[in-house]
Please model this.
Amino acid sequence: METVVVIVGAGPAGLATSVCLNQHSIPNVILEKEDICASLWKKRAYDRLKLHLAKEFCQLPFMPHGREVPTFMSKELFVNYLDAYVARFDINPRYNRTVKSSTFDESNNKWRVVAENTVTGETEVYWSEFLVVATGENGDGNIPMVEGIDTFGGEIMHSSEYKSGRDFKDKNVLVVGGGNSGMEISFDLCNFGANTTILIRTPRHVVTKEVIHLGMTLLKYVPVAMVDTLVTTMAKILYGDLSKYGLFRPKQGPFATKLFTGKAPVIDVGTVEKIRDGEIQVINGGIGSINGKTLTFENGHKQDFDAIVFATGYKSSVCNWLEDYEYVMKKDGFPKAPMPKHWKGEKNLYCAGFSRKGIAGGAEDAMSVADDIRSILATLKNN
Model:
């Protein structure tokens, strides 16, 4: 099949890119390996998840949220919004298509995308002038290699598989990772009566969603350094010194840290109070080794657990199928060009949703990619 643009991935960034291209009447096809759009939100999100960012930072092009929508949406509300977006703009992704390889054919200056239809088992070949990678930052769940992990006698899962603490009542559960997922899963486990411990290796800023909302609004008008100073001061006033509880604050400000490292500040849902009250135990450092259900930590502490939840992030899977990834990506599957032109590669290869700026970043990328493709096609037509 031939088309002008192939988009790989039907998450928010992929859907937005298709809509923006359609606004310019540019033919495009979305290939999605799952049987639904936005599978991360529909299949790999825990039950209690709520969006930590205000609704104006969680919307896609040409369809802002209405006044009736609360400032901070539940997962269900956001999923409904995405489904309404697909319906309103009549987006028709080709589901159950797992892309096996994508290469640039120098002989005709086109991209050759090979996909498997996982329903029929057939191999499909797509040719396009432009290719957009929109599989997102959250590819494959990352579970680090730990000595003896194969001997663990309990349950091991990645945070993307976690749904609820309902089945963990009275069990000793270790959550590995002190980011937003790890902190919120710990809170959920504790609420369901699990004996919860969280393992935190690196310092993280802890703030409220209201403070982050204020900070993100100010960033439109005020330099990052000034916003960081304000947000950090407010966090100190709200929480005080949390280091005695094992929660350490980075020297770099929360928004600068997010910008340069991709690590977002932790938006507290009530976890800090439970840590203060001793309901959730904090261990700093990493896991040294595992022997059966006994874990030995790097600080020498030993403790038995019935389950481990790894909230240790994701690995990009882009380089597994994008053979000519070096035109836009580094080996780690993230853009090689710095912002704000991170989305544009060589040979008409683009990426959307890799800016580490969440839904808003994916929406911005989608508009930039579509505008750039429109400009290139207009130039070719005039020549």
User: Anything to note?
Assistant: The radius of gyration is 22 Å. The longest helix spans residues 358-382.
